[in-house]
Write a structure and sequence with these properties.
The protein is of the alpha+beta class. It has eleven helices and 13 strands.
Length: 349
């Protein structure tokens, strides 16, 4: 069949109703969209005023009448009020190269028509569950929170269409290494207070927590769309599937100032034989520049590891920007083995 003949059998529809968008997102993500995840997805669709481009292919309507949906592909489009068009949930059910390119061309058309300067993705909102990036060939394909799976044909076609790699993230599979920072004589933590805030407390310190991240996370970590909703999703998800120890703050006692904070994300796709959560994504921590080189990263990791060992959590996945050599070395020193890589792509239009 020629490309022209193939193309005649394809059509698109743009959806803007959140419930209708939700029905088709499964076409573009390998991570299960469980019913209890719907509230997180719908919230973000509304926050970003997202739209979906649905790819459809002609079917034998005589045989199936109106009893089937002939959607074969999906991409979610949204922005955060800036000049970047974000996309996520990009997928075609049979990974056909022609259909992938056809759907990609529709993203480019949409971006140009609506005067965006940049297109970036895939970033699957909410990222706390569905993560980001096209997976590099050879990566571990087991279900894990925030780790979508796809064959490499997707990034190959995007790169052919002049997209570039904006960010490369490696993940290291590792056991939880128990470390007591308060017995480490190399550091003096007497001026610092490690705290696991309750959900109610998080509402009170929300602005300070977000500001610390926005001001001092590296530029490579600022690839996701801006919204306080991202923070709310993290707190709600951790409290629903995890435990209070999974979010922490560190205060400098003399100044009562929050100087570092972070969190891990529970992985509900892996439970032990008794149904207990056994793994997390070692997701995030940040330290104010004025308080670096004082061992606060070790304080955060160590104090959190002691809490983890009181539960059944024994392993996890540690995401590290590929350019972050020091964190990569730290992961390897702690026994981590790189088993996944994801790419976020970007195109100027």
């Amino acid at each position: 069949m020629s490309k022209d003949q193939h193309k005649k059998k394809l059509e698109i529809e743009i959806l803007d109703e959140p419930e209708e968008i939700l029905k088709h997102l499964k076409l573009g993500i390998s991570i299960p969209i469980l019913p209890e995840f719907h509230k997180y997805i719908i919230g973000d669709i509304k926050t970003y005023n997202a739209k979906s481009i649905i790819l459809r292919e002609e079917i034998n309507t005589e045989r199936f009448k109106n009893q089937t949906d002939y959607a074969i592909g999906n991409v979610l489009l949204y922005d955060d009020g800036g000049e970047t068009l974000f996309f996520g949930y990009f997928g075609v059910y049979d990974h056909d190269p022609f259909k992938i390119e056809f759907l990609l061309d529709k993203i480019l058309d949409f971006g140009k028509k609506n005067n965006y300067k940049t297109i970036r993705g895939p970033i699957n909102i909410p990222t706390v569950i569905f993560g980001w990036g096209f997976m590099v060939e050879g990566s571990n394909k087991d279900y894990f929170i925030g780790c979508p799976v796809n064959p490499p044909i997707y990034q190959e076609i995007f790169l052919k269409k002049k997209f570039n790699v904006k960010f490369e993230e490696d993940r290291y599979a590792m056991l939880v290494y128990r470390y007591n920072p308060f017995k480490d004589k190399k550091f003096d933590f007497s001026e610092f207070d490690y705290v696991n805030p309750s959900k109610a407390d998080m509402d009170k310190i929300k602005n300070e927590f977000i500001k610390l991240h926005m001001d001092y996370m590296p530029e490579s970590a600022r690839i996701t769309p801006k919204s306080e909703k991202n923070f709310d999703n993290i707190v709600d998800f951790v409290n629903e599937y995890g435990e209070e120890w999974m979010i922490w703050t560190v205060y400098h006692k003399p100044t009562h100032k929050m100087v570092s904070c972070g969190y891990v994300i529970p992985n509900p796709f892996s439970l032990d034989l008794k149904g207990n959560l056994d793994s997390v994504s070692f997701h995030d921590w940040v330290v104010h520049p004025d308080y670096r080189r004082k061992g606060l990263a070790m304080l955060m990791y160590g104090a959190t590891s002691l809490k983890a060992f009181k539960t059944k959590v024994r392993w996890g996945s540690y995401p590290v920007g590929a350019e972050n050599v020091s964190n990569s070395k730290m992961a390897q020193k702690m026994g981590g083995k790189k088993d996944r890589t994801h790419l976020i792509l970007e195109c100027k239009i």
